[in-house]
Structures are given as C-alpha cells and as structure tokens.
Amino acid sequence: MFQFKKFGWAALLALFLFSRAAEAQLPPCTDSTTFAQGYVYTLRTNTNNLQSYASAFVIGNYWYYWSPSVSAVASKNSAQLHAGSASAGPGGTASVVWNDLLSSTGPGTYSISSTHVYSAWCGTNTSYGFAQNTVQKPTITLPQDGIAIPNALWNLGPGTLDFVPTSNGYAYRQKISLGVDKHCLTVETCTDTPNWTINSPASTLVLSASAGNSVFLQKGSSMGNCAYDTTVSVKAGASPGFSSDNVTFGVNS
C-alpha cells in the first residue's frame, strides 16, 4: 500500500512537477545525420530470375529509435503478381522480396510500387517508391561482315575453306559464329552461361558446343559431298527455359 502520508503536499507537488519535466525532456529522435532510407528495385539476378525487392530502414545518430515498415505490390504489364508487407522493431530493417522465373512468367514490363513508413515517439514519416524493368527474351546474334546470305551456310564440298570470299565483297561461309544477347541491364547479374539447342535433320548442321556465350554453327559429319537444301533451328538462353526464339538457317550448295 502506498503511504502518501510520508510526503507533504508540497513534496508531492514537487515530485509531480519533476516527473512532468523529465517527460518533456526526452532525448531527441532525429538530427541532421538521421535519414529514413530504403530500396526498391526489380532486377534480374540471372538470365532466368527476376527479383522484386523493397525495404525500409533508418541511418544516422538516432537510427535505433525508429521502427520501419514497408508494403509493396509487384506487377507484370500492370497485372498484379505479388503483394505483401513487413515491419521491424526499432533500429531494424523491414523488407519484402519475390523471385520470378522468367521461363514461367515470360517477357514483359515488370514493376514494383512501395510505401515506406518510419515511426518513433517524435513522429511518423512516409515515403513512396517505384521501379520498372522491361524484360526481353534473349536473342541470337549473327555476324554481319559480308555474308552472302546471313542466315545460311554453304556446303562447298570437302577440303574447302570455311570462309570463301567472292568477287563482289561477300563471302560463302561453311561455319558461322553465333552469339547471344541476354538483354540484361548493366546493373543486373546475368553471368550464367547460355545453353544452346539445335534441331538439325540427320545432323546436317551441328553446334560446336552445347553451352557458351558464343558457339560455331558448322557442317555436320553426315553432310559429306551432298548438295541439297535443308533447314535447321537454333535457340539459346538460360536453363531452364528462358530462351530465344528459334532462328532458322538454310544450307545452300
């Protein structure tokens, strides 16, 4: 039981005033070094993975007083893919993250919009974020240096050179170097090695490798001295799934 009789009224009044004064002199929760910050992005972490991310945190002298929260919506071509929110205690980081396989979701315009809220006893701050990324499928690149027919190879018979120049400045090629453009931004991480596939009847044409940033498309062992026309289809891209469209090559003789 409290025994107020130990205090005179003057002492009780002095104690009350002291308590109120102490409450009014709570330490500050911000200064010129304290900033509410966060990240929002939608970027590829490899050719086939798109990561959408939003976070909220505080830096500076009084970072440990602030409780952040974040809510976000991720979309493709304005249609919602994900929505969520997260919060953290004083001094923490609140974040949401989603990873999408582009082999499932496909190319398009991806975006993420976010709301970041920072709360402490001295107030609440709110900010908004938005990021967008237009994702394309990989494409096969071809040399353009004087090929007679860019999407064609020639069967000129055994013992002939892979590169046979012509009098009009073009060349007949029996081997073509193929590359792949992943269409990744400079800030994205697309260092994974592309995989290549070929649909070539009777091994008319073959690839020099099944993986690599560039490969050779060349005559197959079954072509021999045959002089005939056929077509093959080549595609390149990530494994699994996010690949270029087929590129068709003709074999001329």
Architecture overview:
It is built from two helices and 18 strands. The chain is mainly beta and 253 residues long. Strands 1, 2, 3 and 6 form a four-stranded antiparallel β-sheet that branches. A four-stranded antiparallel β-sheet has the order 5-4-7-8, with no helix packed on it. The chain has a four-stranded antiparallel β-sheet with strand order 9-13-16-15, with no helix packed on it. It has helices at 9-24, 102-105; strands at residues 35-37, 40-46, 49-59, 67-76, 79-87, 94-101, 108-120, 123-135, 139-141, 152-154, 163-165, 171-173, 175-181, 195-199, 205-207, 214-219, 231-237, 247-252. A hairpin with a 2-residue loop joins β4 and β5. The longest helix is centred in the N-terminal third of the chain and has 16 residues, at 9-24. The chain starts with 8 loop residues before the first helix and ends with a strand. It is elongated, with a radius of gyration of 32 Å.
